[in-house]
Amino acid sequence: MAELDLCPKKKSAKEYAGELTYAYHFNALKFAKLLANNAMSKYKVKHKIATIVGAFKDSEGFIDGIKTSEGEELYYDFYVDCSGFSSILLHK
User: Fold this and answer.
1) Would the pLDDT of 21 be above 70?
2) pTM confidence score
3) What is the full DSSP assignment across 8-61?
4) Residues ≥6 apart with Cβ < 8 Å to 61
5) What does the alpha-carbon distance between residue 63 and residue 75 come to, in Å, rounded to a whole number?
């Protein structure tokens, strides 16, 4: 965008540097879908939609699995808690 003069950042500014008096807004839902589709098609990530109600911890206190509102117990290698102040994975 900078190379095409479509944003306030100057071409001469260093990478990741420049004025911060502007912001770009995008549709977060469309961006999330883009990321999900990319992960599924390129990296064989499985996408599951569920309501998480709690987490299971191992003997060291790390998250071992999660429980859904349907009673499923799911186990994965990596967890990201996007529940905001509820902090479901850490506090429940």
Assistant:
1) no
2) 0.56
3) SS-TTSPTT-S--S------HHHHHHHHHHHHHHHH--------EEEEEE-TTS
4) none
5) 9
Contact 55, 36 (CB under 8 A): no
Are 65 and 54 in contact, with CB atoms under 8 Å apart?
no
Residues 34-51: pLDDT tens digits? 999 999 999 988 888 889
The tokens describing 16, both together, are: 């990741």
Cβ-contact 16, 52 below 8 angstroms = no
CA-wise closest residue to 17 among 33, 2, 30: 2
Q: Domain map of the chain by residue range? A: 1-45, 52-91
Identify the DSSP state of 79.
-
